[in-house]
Structure formats: C-alpha cells, structure tokens
Amino acid sequence: MGQILANIFRVLNWLGLTYFLALNTIYLILIIAASLNIGQYFRKRPYLGLEEALKSPVTMPVSILVPAHNEEAVIVESARAILALRYPQFELIIVDDGSSDNTFSLLQEEFQLVEIPFHIEQLVPTRGLTKSVYIAPGLIDLTVMRKESVGQKTDALNAAINIAKYPLLAMVDADAVLDQDALLMVTLPFIDDPISVMATGGAIRPSNGCNVVRGRMTEVGMPKSWLAKIQIVEYLRAFLLGRTGWSRLHGLLIISGAFGVFKKEGVIAIGGYNHDSIGEDADLVARLHRYYTNARKPYQIVFVSEPICWTEVPEDTATLRKQRQRWSRGLAEVIWTNKRMIFNPRYKSVGLLAIPYFIFFEILGPFVEIGGILILAIALIFHMVNFDFAGLFLAAALLYGILLSILSLLVEELSYHKYDKWRYLRDAVLASILENFGFRQLHAAWRIEGTWQALRKKNRSWGTMVRKGYTQPSTSP
Amino acid sequence: MKVALILSVTLLSLAIIIFTFLTIILRFWRLNRSKRYALYRAKVRKLIVELTVDEQEPSDKNFTRKLKLGQLEELSESIATKVKGESKDRLVSFLESKGSVTKAIRRTRRIGSIGKCNAASFLGNLSIARARPALEALLGSRNREVRISAARALGQLGQPGSIPALLDSLDKTGKQLPFGACIVALLDIGPKGEEYILAGLEGAGERQRAACAEILGIINSIRSTQALIDHFQNDLSIDVRIRCARALGRIGSPRAVSQLIRGLEDDNPLPLRLVSCRSLGQLGDPEAVPAIANLLISDNHQLLNTAAQTLSQLSSEGFKSLTSLAASHSPNREYALEALARKSVKSAVIEPQLEPLEVLFDYQWDKFWQTYFEF
Q1: B148 in contact with A at a CB cutoff of 8 Å?
Q2: Which of these, B81, B111, B117, B143, lies nearest to A47 by C-alpha position?
Q3: Which CATH architecture describes the domain B48-57+68-156?
Q4: Is the separation of the CB atoms in B166 and B151 below 8 Å?
Q5: Quick check: B338 and A409 CB within 8 A?
Q6: pLDDT digits (tens, 9 = 90+) for B87-146
Q7: Which terminal CB of chain B, N or C, has fewer other CB atoms within 10 Å?
C-alpha cells in the first residue's frame, strides 16, 4: 500500500512539475511577445496618426454606450469626462438600468434632459421594457434611456445598441476613467483598416489611489490597500502583457467589458450580447471569432496596449471574491458554449492556442494548484513527504511567479512608466512578492468556486460593486 | 531531478535579483536623463532663438562648441512649428549651414522606419521644399508609420504638385496610405490643389476617387459640381457615389437637387439613399420635400428615421409634412413625433441660471403690487 502511494505521489510530482513548467513558460512567451509589441508601439507612437484621425472629417463616428445601475457616485463626472473626449464625432448613450438611487435625477439636473417620444427597432433582442428616452438640448449629443432592469448588464447594452446611430460602438463602464485620447487610440485600427477590423480593446488599469478630477485622471498613484496593490501588478502582468501577447499571436479572446470598441454590423450580425452569459465580454469576442470564421470573411480583433482606461478594483476580499468567481464562471461558460472551437484548426490560433490555453491553464490551473496543496497535506499525514523535493518545488513555483511579475514591472518601466514615484516602485516589487503568499492560493480557491458554479449552473447574478466615487484633488498648497 | 530543481531555484533567484536591479537602474537613468535633458533643452532653446529669431551672436560661445547636432535639430524642429516668415527662413538657413537638412533628406533613404519617420517629421515641420521627392518616395514605404509621416510632411509642405503622389499611394496594394492621413494631408494643402484633385476624380483607383470626392466637398469646390454629379450617377463604386452625394450636399449647389432626388429611388442601395436624403437636407431646397416625404411610407427603420430627421431640418414645407404625419394614424407617425421633438429640444436655447440680483430684477413686481393693493 505504502509503495503504491509512493508511486502515485511520484507520478503526481512529475505531472505537477511538467504542468508548472508549461504554464510559466507560456506566460514567459506571452510576456516576451507583448514586450516586443509594446516596444514597437512605443517607438512609433508619435507617428501613429492620432492627430490625423482627430482632424480628419472621415474618421468613423462612434456611439459610446454606458450601462448604469445605481451609479450615482460617479455617473455625472463620468458623463462629463466622456463628453470631453478628443474625438471628431460621437454620441453618448447612457442606459439607466432600473436604478433605485439618484442616477437619473442627477443626470437630468446636470444636462437638463428633456423626454422625447421614441421608436426603437429591435436590431438585437432585449428583455427589459424601455420606459423613456431623454436627450440633452443644444450641441451635446447625449441620450439617456430609462429601462426596467432584468439584472443583466447585457440587456442594458443591447438596448443601447438598438438606439445607437453610428457604425462603431464603444462599450464603457460607468466608473471607467478614460484618458482624453482613449477613444482615438482604440479606434485607430478601424481607421487603418475599416473593412476587416471588427473589435478593439484598450488596456485597463486600477484607478484606486489615483487622483481623478472631474472624471479625468490627473495623477497616477498607488492605493493604500495591499489587496489593490497586488491587483495593480496582476493587471499589469495578466491583462496588459497577457492580452497584448495574445493579440500579437492573433488569439485575443477577451476584450474587457470596461472599455472596448466593436463594429456595429458585426455585433448585430451575431445578435448582440448573449443575455444568458455572465462573461459577456469574452462571449461576444468568441462569437465574433466564430461568426467571421464560419462566414469565411477576413477579420481582426486587436488589443491596444496603451493604458487608456482606469477602473476601480475591489479593496475587500468579499467583493473581490465575487468578482473573481464571476470571471471564472463566465470564462467556463464561454468555453463550454464555444466548445466546437477547441482544437479546431479552422479557427487557427484561437481554436488551437487561445482556447486550449484557457482550458488547461486558466480553468484547470486553480484545481492543480489547490490539488497540489491537498496532496502535500495528505503526503504529510502519511509521512511520505520528500521535504527536499517539496521545498525546492515550492520555491521554484513561487520564484517563477515572482519573476514573471518583476518582468512585467520592467516592461512597464521601459514603456509607459506610469507609476513614477520611488515608493510606488517599492510597493509594486513588494506586491509582486506578497502576491504569491496567500493571495494566489485564495484566488485559486475563488476560481474553483466560480468554475463549480458554472458546472452547476447556479448563481447567475452580477453582484454589486460598491463605488467609492472619484477621489477629490488634495487642497494642500 | 533534485539537481535540476536546485539549479532552477538558483537561476530563478538570480534572475529576480538581476531584473529587479535592472528596473531600479532603469528608473535612475530615466530620472537623471530627464533632469539633465530639461536643463540642456532650456540652454539650447535660448541659443537657437538668439541665433535665428533675434539674429544675435550666441551669448554662451563655449556651449555652442559642445552642442550635439541631434538635440539641436530636435529643438529647432519643435521651434519651427511656432515661428513663421523670416524667422523661420533664418532657422532653416541656420540648419542648412549645419548640414542638417541634407542629412535628414539622406536619412529618408536609410534603413529603419523610426529614422525615416523622424526625418520626414523634421523636413515637414521645417517646410523644406526641396525634400518633396524624398518624401514622395517614402509614401511607397512598406511601413505604415513611415507612410503616415511622409503624408503629414507633404501636407505641411503645402505643394499642390505632391497631390498625385498622395492619391496614388491610396491604392497601392499592401502599401496603402491610411485614408484619413491622406485626407488630412490634402486638406493641409487646401484649395490651391483643386485642379489636381479634380483630375484625381477621374483616376483609376477607387480609394483615390473617393478621397477626391470627399475633399472637393470639404473645400466647397463649386466648379467640380458637374464632375461630382457625373460620378454620383455613373461611378462603378458605391463608396465613391456615396462620397459624391455627401460632397454635393456640402457644396450646396441647386444643380444637384434633382440628381440627389433620383438617388432616393428604391433601386439604389440603402446607404446611397440615406446619404442622398441627408444631403438634400443640407441643400435645404423645398423641391426635395415631396420626394423625402415619400420615404415616410417605407418599412425600413433607418430610412424612416433619416427621412423624418431630414424633413425636420427642411424649411416650413418639411415641417408641415411632418406635422401632418404626426397628426395622422399612420403606423410611422412615431418617427415624425420623434423627429419633431428632437428638433425642438436641440434648437432650444438654454437660459443661464439667474444670479440672486438678477432674480430681483426679473421678479414680477407688477403682480406683486397688484396682489399687495388688492389685499
């Protein structure tokens, strides 16, 4: 019995080691691919043609869609900031999705909204009844739609798509803080290639600890909470570098729901957002991949690495847990819905690389990580732990994780250099180390919970995120 | 296996230490460089102004000897966009004397896209007329950013002779100039290039004709009305026809009305009908009202919406047809109601909120006294 157990543990050791090497090597490849991309982008930045796009009368106009459910803390400043974006022609559509707070009254007071009769064509399906439509007088192109909430952000977005009048749709979260050129940067791929580019996403960074005045980022800072600091490093590594890497490998599967631009004809062709999906952003992108590949039409989905959208991240474990559960649940559901794409050479790098990566490393990764800890515990009970091996393996796993985070910091330092104070760098390095002791394991457990919920098809609600509102500027001289 | 793990742990630890130090060193270098560069920049800027704009001898001769040409060029370029006339000429001749202009023209032929972009930007900002052939050659580059910088520079040069090269670059397979970049360059050259743009409208390339139609509308080229009408009617490309319709609306010639009305007919593609409708709205001719009002019986949401919005902008005739539709029992009356409401809200003048003192002035004193005396 003892021998059998020992053999099992030996096999598991090898499996774990191989898995851990494969996962981190893929991360390393993604970081290298992203660094090359960012380096190239950074050197060409002055010649990208932003000013030409701004001045050109033929730049494609954009409908900016903002779903808002109980967003009274941020909605007015957010709307003001969006209306002040540098872009030749755009409209802002805010959907008040059954808010029970002052979201609508604040908007009405600020922009002197007037109700108009409306007629909406159902280009994409909606569930909640549209109650009224308001527009702002004068030159401001602002429409506010009030609808009954069905508890789904996707329904609000679909309702907004139905009244959008321009060929490009920008989906923006109500609490997102956009840089002034954010829209220009993210629509640049559409301007270059108006035929085949179907969607673009911008890089997202945590806004916690930053100074935001009138919906505009005035100073980038680090939050006090270590949980938020760890998330800053995590966003840098996983979202900025990970997604840039996938974009370079033509396998981008997620465009963040906080800020992404889509071609309207594409979104309508696939029937808009899927009401039943909790990971609506990944679901939309996966369906776009599927639709255009099946239709044999050339298409591109591009990621812009410039940090242009800032969003508040949870600073308490309860909210963070819900968020991460939702992400994992969403991802598992999206992959299940699009299972025909898995290892299907027709879908090229999405089917052969991106989706298998998400299955083996993003969905199964937490199971392997927590499983490893459990096996270690069992081995300890049966006195079968080879302490040398276990210690070295654990050390290698932790050190590889830290190395990847430090490499992300180095890329950030070489390129955008947003966290410019010495103490921010110190905190980021510390967060890169601390992340591996506790947070990573907890995160793995939350992700398992999310995947489990997806398997049981339970808990489809979005959950609530408590907004702090924007930090006011300091009054010190 | 144990050895491999020990080796991995050692290597990983080393890598972490090296990369952390590298990040710290990089930050030191960056901060130091930006401080030094800011000081240097201030000195060089002062010197350039003395040498070129004020025509003085440099106050710091030691510094002049140590000047680095690259930074001098970079700063001259940033100043060049802010000075005009004789000052700019002096700045250019100063840089010519240093050999910078010739060097920049040579740089456009070297390998490396960033160098080419920098050279094009330098030549464009300084408006070096003799750099035109070099910049036109850059339009054929395989690199997108190089093509954009060349187009931008040619626009800054403002020579109508470069228009054919700009237009040709729109249809080069695999080396296409982005449409927006070409449009902006053509706009920078402006109406003096009308002749070339009109000739370009007869070109073979679809994107070229589309750009010409767009620009002719923007620069209000009345003499191109007939050519635009011809292309609106007969061009093989729908995109060109759409842009011609838009241009005709912008130019505002009454000659285009009857043609645009034909553009509303059912056998035309939907995008063309929509743009024709909007252009008729811009022309504001009451003659178009019945044709647009006819669209209000359509079953296409986009067409109905556009027609109703256009009618709301079209004089009293359009307004009348909308109000009669709004009062009817037609299933499409909601479109008329929405268009009328949008028009009235959008044209509403918002009174600024009254200050406390103004409230006193604005108070209806006559009513107050009336009430008071009645009491």
Answers
A1: yes
A2: B117
A3: Alpha Horseshoe (1.25)
A4: yes
A5: no
A6: 778 878 878 887 888 988 998 988 788 889 988 988 998 889 999 999 999 999 988 889
A7: C
